[in-house]
Amino acid sequence: MNHNLNDKQTNKKNENEVSLSINGQPITAPDSLSVIQALWHAGYPRVKGVGCLDGVCGSCSVMVRRADSSEIKMELGCQLLIEDGMDVFFSVFELPPQHNYELSRINTSWDVQTEFHKIFPEAEKCRHCNGCNKACPKGIDVESGVELAVKGRFRESGELFVECVMCNLCMTGCPEFIDPNHVGLFARRVTGYFHTRPSNLINQLEAIRTGQLDVDIEEQS
Amino acid sequence: MSQNKVMSGSISYQQALGNYHLQKQSLEGFPAVELSIDEKQLLKEFHPDHRHETITELQVGPNKGDRCHKQIADVLQADSRIDAADLAGTRIRETDVLVIGGGGAGCAAALMAAEAGAKVILATKLKLGDSNTVMAEGGIQASIEKGDTPQSHYNDTFKAGHQSGNKKLIKKLVMDGPETIRWLIQQGMQFDLNEFGDLLTRKAGGTSANRVVYFRDYTGLEMMRVLREAVKNSDVDVWDYSPAVELLSNESGHCAGAIISSLQECRYVQIKAKTVIIATGGIGRIHLNQFPTSNHFGATGDGLVLAYRLGAKLRDLDSFQYHPTGVAYPQHLSGTLITEGLRSSGAFIINALGERFVNELKPRDIVAAAIIRECQEGRGVVGDSADGKNVMQGVWLDTPSLEARKPGILKKRFPKLVQLGLKSKIDITQTPMLIYPTLHYQNGGVVIDENGRSTIAGLYCVGEVSGGIHGRNRLMGNALLEIISFGRRAGARAVKDRKTRGHKQITIDHISNLRRELMQNNMPMTSKSPLLFPEYAQFDSAKNSTARNSSSTFCGVCDQ
Ligand SMILES: Cc1cc2nc3c(=O)[nH]c(=O)nc-3n(C[C@H](O)[C@H](O)[C@H](O)COP(=O)(O)OP(=O)(O)OC[C@H]3O[C@@H](n4cnc5c(N)ncnc54)[C@H](O)[C@@H]3O)c2cc1C
Ligand code: SF4
Ligand code: SF4
Ligand code: FES
Hints:
Chain A is α+β, with helices and mostly antiparallel strands.
């Protein structure tokens, strides 16, 4: 992995203005800008679909076709650097969540499996079409995550979704309406809810509850 | 966006990279210079808070006469976006509790209020969870380790805040620590655990014990996606793309709701509420002193403006946190935070001569000031940004040596940073990142009591918008603790107010009062606030349809 910033730094002539199209608008901007920054740079207002600008909130998903290919890829607009000849569209779909559940209604960890299938009845119909994996801008193996959850291996399933930013792109691509990212989040949440019982935390809670630990606001160390 | 003049004698990127590699390979490594410094003097000379030309006195409102950053004063003393005529014919909705802001504090408050049976609307500017909370990396404080106590947590927090925090608030904060972690686990949040299932903890700059619990360098992401899911699966009525632009008051001047600008419908809606909880977060996108920021897109200090106009008292409006390690290059990531966890793990900061110039584990204000000093005195790394408009400057964050000392640590503990490097075509195991301080956190804010109540009846403020807990400097991990601890307190408490009050009359009289006061003080009424979005997003020009690009097939605000 070589960094190519040096020539950019020292030789101004190399710095590139690129031309591309964003939401059908022709735009010219320096290639050091992200898609969102390029829109602003070119004087177009952009508020919708902008959030953290840090690649973690999942609000800015865009579809992009590059000059040298006909393939359409999903990316995060705040992370995607513009290139010559790109065609970019901000996603407009905003699907309401299909599923509803409350962790507190699941009585014990023995019931998780049954409850999961009640909440996400479509999950076992996954046809392994790989659509979700192709859509994921974070490169998550979404499909395996769904498969593991269906098998009741929630901890392992949840592990696959550590970097999921809930951009919903996998959800829009799924022909079975599985909401794979919500499956993944369910898997993560039940793991925390039922299986995180840290003794260091529990001991301290007990010491506070029984009044062994308190704070004297006048005492200074 | 660098705000300081670049010294002419500064060292180019190439040259500095050469110096770096030379020293790295040398036997003695990086020489450490000036590690013992007069910290008070350093802050005074180089910390942005101490630039006298940027401080002013407020002319109107409850904090009249108090010191305030000029750019904050500008928004506090601007005109309202609302005229009485705007309200004619607007839709009116009613609720028990209105939460404004969908970050961690807002979600915690909404969940508690809804759980207690109140009718809750949560109105947020962007999408639920687009917030500073989702970006937090380092972790959350709670005294849970054997030998650590809430008292030590209290002492550390008070001391770090330069003895100016509100003692009662700090006591609540630290006593809530362990319970807050338990509550988060009950929402389904995961933390990093050791092989026995105990919570892993680490130190932060200024903590006397291992007290920060975390989930990788994704603590905020994990927290936010869990809270967002919990809120969406609750009875809370979530309004996305609905920034609050003004509060409503009743006949006695109590808070009685808010006016929301629905971005999708391009119109105003009035929400009458028995209680309002403001949880709008921080001010980074006001770009104080032209600094880049680590904050999310909607962090424009709106809550301060809303509360101040209704008469709520604020505090410490001249105290902000500049995080020492913001990305300086590449430009599209300028201001992006690099977690303090790296310095805690032993990463050095190196100047353009290949020297260490500060103890990296000193508090944030000291390290930030030291970096600014290096750059101002010509020992910074300098390069032109690609569009030639900005000259950027910074120093190195030495990830390569950290990786050499602890092979594998970057990938395992800091996956987000590795990703960030890869996206910028920088392999951080080989090449250091260029960094410069970034505007990070609003230390002060709305004055509150132990349940998050402001000085105005019916108005609560929680999270980064509030002030008093962190005094004039915040420890890493205390913000995430604060938003959950005080968010929950306010949500639970707001429900109790529900039965006691009804509003006879709903008004926006406070706006007329504001205008009168501004006029009496000869203040220019040329700009309006709250800002809602940073200027470069051109929100106001888009709303003003005459300015909308006629060839544009859609509006970047509502996509219509
Ligand atoms: C990059 C980064 C890393 C951090 N790391 C840590 C860490 O490791 N540990 C720690 O303790 N702290 C950390 N912090 C600080 C901490 O994350 C924040 O202080 C905290 O999350 C603020 O929470 P909040 O709920 O008050 O505000 P936010 O999470 O910012 O939420 C505010 C919400 O209000 C909305 N809003 C704003 N204006 C309006 C309006 N007019 N109407 C309606 N809605 C509005 C916003 O869109 C947003 O959704 C970090 C901060 C940043 C930026
Ligand atoms: S798993 Fe789905 S929601 Fe998560 S990042 Fe990938 S595409 Fe987005
Ligand atoms: S897109 Fe849906 S059906 Fe296809 S593999 Fe993914 S989860 Fe299964
Ligand atoms: S704006 Fe949050 S992921 Fe791009």
